[in-house]
């Protein structure tokens, strides 16, 4: 069975019975707290979706590939995932957990990352230059060629008690 796309669907706290989602666009869906254990996401796009408390580390990470546009991913967890080239645009990630992730070349475009957790995360070549509320420890994450704006400096230097004044 091929799913062409899902629009304005509500999957609140349900278990997705479709275990392989390949090239499926989700638009205006509420997937908050949905059970996605062993679900495969390949070339899946989420646009204008509410996805609070999602546990993406419970997915089958085989060929995992998705992107987000204007989504609410508050308190979602991506713990330990390989998410190279992940693209998040205009999304809210309050309290999201990226511990032990590989986010090489990820793009966080105009995202709100308030209280997001980055611990032992590979952020090589990631772009945070247009995002807000980033707090992370440069000594506990790989930031090789990572991009930040000047406004992001307080979130990078906070542990040193340095005040950045513009």
Automatic annotation (TrEMBL):
Name of a matching Pfam family: Pentapeptide_4
Listed Gene3D superfamilies: E3 ubiquitin-protein ligase SopA
InterPro entries: 5peptide_repeat (IPR001646), PA_immunity-related (IPR052949)
Protein name: Pentapeptide repeat-containing protein
Organism: Maribacter litopenaei
Classification lineage: Bacteria, Pseudomonadati, Bacteroidota, Flavobacteriia, Flavobacteriales
């Amino acid at each position: 069975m091929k799913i062409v796309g899902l629009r304005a669907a509500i999957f609140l706290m349900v278990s997705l019975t479709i275990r392989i989602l390949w090239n499926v666009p989700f638009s205006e869906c509420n997937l908050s707290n949905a059970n996605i254990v062993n679900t495969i996401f390949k070339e899946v796009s989420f646009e204008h979706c509410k996805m609070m408390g999602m546990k993406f580390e419970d997915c089958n990470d085989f060929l995992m590939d998705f992107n987000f546009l204007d989504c609410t991913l508050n308190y979602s967890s991506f713990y330990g995932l390989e998410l190279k080239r992940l693209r998040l645009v205009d999304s809210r990630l309050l309290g999201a957990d990226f511990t032990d992730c590989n986010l090489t070349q990820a793009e966080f475009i105009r995202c709100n990352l308030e209280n997001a957790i980055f611990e032992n995360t590979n952020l090589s070549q990631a772009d945070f230059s247009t995002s807000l509320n980033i707090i992370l420890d440069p000594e506990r994450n790989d930031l090789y060629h990572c991009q930040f704006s000047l406004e992001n400096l307080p979130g990078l230097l906070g542990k040193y008690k340095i005040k950045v004044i513009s």
